[in-house]
Amino acid sequence: MSSADYADHLASLKKPFLITPGIKVLNLNPRAKKYMEWITNEVISNNETFFKQLNRANVTILDNDVPLHFSLPKGEIFLSRGLLEKYVKHESVLVSILSYELVRSENLLYAKHTIVPIGYLPLERMMQLNRLGLEEKMEIHKWAYYLTTRAGFDGEYYLSWLQTQNRNTADFLMQVGDVNLINREESLFKAFLIQSGDGDNPLAKKNSSKNFYTFINSMRDN
Q1: Would the pTM count as exceeding 0.85?
Q2: CA distances (Å), 18 to each of 62, 77, 89, 147, in order?
Q3: Residues 216, 133: Cα–Cα separation, whole Å
Q4: 127-165: pLDDT as tens digits
Q5: Residues 6 or more apart whose Cβ sits within 8 Å of residue 134
Q6: Which one-letter DSSP state was computed for residue 24?
Q7: DSSP label of 217
Q8: Side-by-side strand order, sheet with 69-72
Q9: Is 100 exposed, middle or buried (0-12, 13-18, 19+ CB in 10 A)?
């Protein structure tokens, strides 16, 4: 397959995944939908030199207690209710997660698999398709960190997000696959920050917006 064909193939997995028995999607209210459109656009529009393919993203919230996130090509991003309710306590954490998946979706950073369509795709299989090795993940982390800060958000929360996963490996087992991997990610990302010498960004949004809290609270309404 060409890169374009492979992107189409992976993106087409969204439909069988969403109709798989046991997969439930939260129906966001108009305000929550508008917020997700705004937050992803903040990352894309403030990093125009990076994004050559994507000009928008679509975020689907899964009604699942397990904290997880993953993506497909063409800006298709999936977050779980459990992730948002339990672990996304600051807007910059949300942007860090979205930036990570946007980097993957823009550059087709997925393991090479050709899936024979059988009408459905279990969550466990989707997570397996999204797993990468340490080297690939570290490159994504670096780019996602830069995208987060260039969008005007607090990059310190990117490290905080990795540390949160490292402290709660039992919860994130489905996400990371290998519990030892996240420990290495945190250590290497700390080294990257020290080596790059990135200091505090005085223009970063230190506080979460009211719309962020409204969005998080809307999860409970569902």
Answers
A1: yes
A2: 9, 13, 27, 29
A3: 31
A4: 988 999 999 999 999 999 999 999 999 999 999 999 999
A5: 181, 184, 185, 188
A6: -
A7: H
A8: 58-62, 76-80, 69-72
A9: buried
